[in-house]
Amino acid sequence: MNAASQGGSSAGCRLYLITPPRLDLVRFRDDLAAALDAGDVACLQLRLKDAAPDDVKRATEALMPVCHAHDVAFILNDDAKLAHALGCDGAHLGQTDGDHAGARKLLEGKILGITCHASRHLAMEAGELGADYVAFGAFFPTDTKEVLHHATPDILEWWSEMMEIPCVAIGGITAQNCAPLVRSGADFLAVVGAVWNHPDGPAAGVKAMNAAIAAA
Ligand SMILES: Cc1ncc(COP(=O)(O)OP(=O)(O)O)c(N)n1
Ligand SMILES: Cc1nc(C(=O)O)sc1CCOP(=O)(O)O
Ligand SMILES: [Mg+2]
């Protein structure tokens, strides 16, 4: 995530936004613009679970220009081929989202992120195949998805002391609980609820997260 990772907070950690799993595109485009106007965001991951490719295409066409106008990378969840076909800046793949090595070849020069749960072994494998970042989680309970794996901050310390490849922390992260993750070396904090469900709106969510990152 080289281009996306320039100019972050004083802690060197940046915010990684993920969309809600279902959204009203017209309303969400305005929410996204307000969120990106509010402060530093490295990237947006489009994560529409169970959406048809045509819906993902429509969402990409509506949202990617908003991201690019704010110098924010646009990453597609789950599908490297569709990310390539739609001209996205990259893809995020989980452990059951197809052939990681094939995705690396297809997305040459683009961002490839890989979910590694709480596994040092999976992270080493992802690093060896050329992932641009590895994602660890879930660090905290979350209502956004049912999680089977639970990570602790020591995996961020272990990874960041040993590897140059950035690491992303995910799962139930809020402005109130993120400080140990930043201090343990997370390069990015990936959030859904902390921004889109913030009681004062997404702009307030981005401001609160960036303030917490800077204060950590
Ligand atoms: C940044 C980031 N980290 C982890 C995930 C989870 O990916 P995955 O395990 O494939 O689960 P789904 O998102 O597909 O439900 C992610 N999306 N983004
Ligand atoms: C999409 C996702 N993946 C996770 C993992 O642990 O791999 S946790 C998660 C949900 C993140 O949403 P929130 O910030 O609202 O908790
Ligand atoms: Mg996935």
UniProtKB/TrEMBL annotation:
Q: Which GO terms describe its biological process?
A: thiamine biosynthetic process; thiamine diphosphate biosynthetic process
Q: Which UniProt keywords apply?
A: Magnesium, Metal-binding, Thiamine biosynthesis, Transferase
Entry GO MF terms: magnesium ion binding; thiamine-phosphate diphosphorylase activity
Q: Which domain of life is it from?
A: Bacteria
The record ties this protein, via Pfam families, to: TMP-TENI
- Supply the EC number(s): 2.5.1.3
Recorded catalytic reaction(s): these are: 4-methyl-5-(2-phosphooxyethyl)-thiazole + 4-amino-2-methyl-5-(diphosphooxymethyl)pyrimidine + H(+) = thiamine phosphate + diphosphate; 2-[(2R,5Z)-2-carboxy-4-methylthiazol-5(2H)-ylidene]ethyl phosphate + 4-amino-2-methyl-5-(diphosphooxymethyl)pyrimidine + 2 H(+) = thiamine phosphate + CO2 + diphosphate; 2-(2-carboxy-4-methylthiazol-5-yl)ethyl phosphate + 4-amino-2-methyl-5-(diphosphooxymethyl)pyrimidine + 2 H(+) = thiamine phosphate + CO2 + diphosphate
Residue spans crossing the bilayer? none
Residue sites binding 2-[(2R,5Z)-2-carboxy-4-methylthiazol-5(2H)-ylidene]ethyl phosphate per the record: 142-144, 172
**What does it do?**
Condenses 4-methyl-5-(beta-hydroxyethyl)thiazole monophosphate (THZ-P) and 2-methyl-4-amino-5-hydroxymethyl pyrimidine pyrophosphate (HMP-PP) to form thiamine monophosphate (TMP).
Positions contributing to Mg(2+) binding:
78, 97
Cellular component, GO annotation: cytoplasm
Q: Where is the Thiamine phosphate synthase/TenI domain?
A: 15-195
Gene this protein is translated from: thiE
Pathway terms, separated by semicolons: Cofactor biosynthesis; thiamine diphosphate biosynthesis; thiamine phosphate from 4-amino-2-methyl-5-diphosphomethylpyrimidine and 4-methyl-5-(2-phosphoethyl)-thiazole: step 1/1
Q: What class of enzyme is it?
A: transferase
Binding-site list for 4-amino-2-methyl-5-(diphosphooxymethyl)pyrimidine = 45-49, 77, 115, 145
Family assignment from sequence similarity: Belongs to the thiamine-phosphate synthase family.
Cofactor(s) in the UniProt record: Mg(2+)
Cofactor binding annotation = Binds 1 Mg(2+) ion per subunit.
Against InterPro entries, the record matches this protein to: Aldolase_TIM, ThiamineP_synth_sf, ThiamineP_synth_TenI, TMP_synthase
Entry protein name: Thiamine-phosphate synthase
